[in-house]
Design brief:
Layout: E1 3-9, H1 29-44, E2 51-54, H2 58-66, H3 68-71, E3 75-78, H4 87-93, E4 101-107, H5 111-120, E5 131-137, E6 140-147
Parallel strand pairs: 1-4, 2-3, 2-4
Antiparallel strand pairs: 1-5, 5-6
């Protein structure tokens, strides 16, 4: 079995609650629409995660909840260190991915884009709810594709 990684940015969040902290912002209507569509697309492409590491923010947890129709039985771990993570923080998180199977890291930008660039040496724009699909061969990661809500 291959070591695969899905790097996903949370779905679109709401700015309608100015009294909430950034960490506590929920998804908006578009986010609630896009997250399940991305989950469906990942399953259709056979990129089913075996483990999901998710930021502690409300919007990332709601993104995961909105994908639960596809990933309900998948083990997930809330990782507060993914919130506002630097590239170095995310590289430490990579030490927790499973060796054989597919791990998803569900987080934020700019960390998602920086991690894709660092692993694949390809810069990709990752709007909200985008997912980058990578696989590892030896010590090298290969970017297979990016799924963006507006492209499905």
């Amino acid at each position: 079995m291959v070591n695969r990684l899905i790097i996903m940015r949370h779905a679109k969040s709401s700015w309608n609650f100015p009294n909430l902290s950034d960490h506590d912002r929920p998804l908006n209507k578009r986010g609630l629409r896009d997250a399940p569509r991305i989950a469906d697309e990942l399953v259709q492409r056979a990129w089913n995660p075996d483990l999901i590491l998710v930021s502690s923010s409300v919007r990332t947890k709601q993104t995961l909840e909105s994908m639960s129709h596809q990933f309900g039985d998948v083990t997930s771990k809330i990782k507060p260190e993914i919130y506002h993570a630097s590239l170095q923080d995310l590289l430490i998180i990579l030490e927790e991915i499973i060796e054989e199977g597919t791990t998803m890291i569900l987080g934020h930008n700019p960390g998602s884009e920086m991690l894709v660039k660092h692993l694949s040496d390809e810069w990709q724009i990752m709007p909200t709810a985008s997912a980058a699909l990578l696989s590892k061969s030896g010590n090298h990661w290969k970017l297979h594709e990016i799924i963006r809500p507006k492209e499905i």
